[in-house]
Design goal:
245 residues, 3-stranded antiparallel sheet, Double Stranded RNA Binding Domain, mainly alpha, Ribonuclease iii, N-terminal Endonuclease Domain, Chain A, 2 domains, 3 strands
Length: 245
């Protein structure tokens, strides 16, 4: 079974000493209810643990990145990072939807892409990593996963994400509220010599390709794609601009 999760272990840069923990983290309760399934162990307890661990990790990192921030600012920033939408987005970024084991009912209702299941799986993974690798590793991984969000300055926390140049967060907020969908970024192209590489990413909302962006890093290319998608999604539909012909 552990071989099934080898790609995930590569992504998170950790090989589990106890592979059963990772298997448990990626097993939704619905999987155990299907006839003939060999396990009754699911990820709810690891989710419970991971919820507390990710709260601690983000709180600790915010204090490092925002040493002058007040308790109120830190609380709001943590809430903006540790919520279902953000954690589901991070889960998709790690490809957890490809590893999550769900029952037939959830499979038929596209449970793998439900924000609630994805965020729960992310928390369960964090709980499993805490038990297998320890808090220091979780802190390192969380810093890598949430790096862009952590870099937003505390003195500007009242400013919108878009005004701060964080177009990915702005797009996520828009698509969640308007379409109940999370944007998904896919690498289209990587070209040029190593010191002058250019990356091209497309961003999709559901089955629709909204935009493509390029940049000299993956993060910058994704931000450019998100910026272009925001412009497109905010354009008035034909006939909505009030003009007549």
């Amino acid at each position: 079974m552990s071989e099934l999760f080898a790609d995930l272990e590569t992504k998170i840069r950790h090989h589990f000493a106890e592979p059963a923990l990772l298997e448990q983290a990626m097993t939704h309760k619905s999987f155990c209810g299907d006839p003939g399934k060999e396990t009754s162990i699911h990820n709810e307890k690891l989710e419970f643990l991971g919820d507390a661990v990710i709260d601690l990790a983000i709180a600790s990192l915010l204090m490092q990145y925002l040493p002058e921030a007040t308790e109120g600012v830190l609380t709001r920033r943590r809430a903006s990072l540790v919520n279902q939408g953000t954690l589901a987005s991070k889960a998709l970024g790690l490809g957890l939807d490809n590893f999550l084991r769900v029952g037939k009912s959830e499979e038929c209702s596209e449970g793998r892409t439900k924000p609630s299941l994805l965020s729960d799986a992310f928390e369960a993974l964090i709980g499993a990593l805490y038990l297998d690798a320890g808090l220091d590793f979780v802190l390192e991984l969380a810093e890598d996963i949430f790096f862009e969000e952590l870099c937003v300055g505390s003195d500007r926390d009242q400013t919108s994400a878009e005004a701060l140049g964080d177009f990915k967060s702005a797009l996520q907020e828009l698509t969640q509220s308007a379409y109940r969908q999370l944007p998904v970024y896919t690498l289209l192209e990587q070209r040029g010599p190593e010191h002058l590489q250019v990356f091209a990413y497309e961003v999709r909302v559901g089955e629709v390709v909204c935009a493509v962006g390029e940049g000299n890093s993956k993060k910058r290319a994704q931000q450019e794609a998100a910026r272009a998608a925001l412009e497109l999604l905010r354009q008035p539909a034909d006939g909505e601009n009030g003009e007549t012909t």
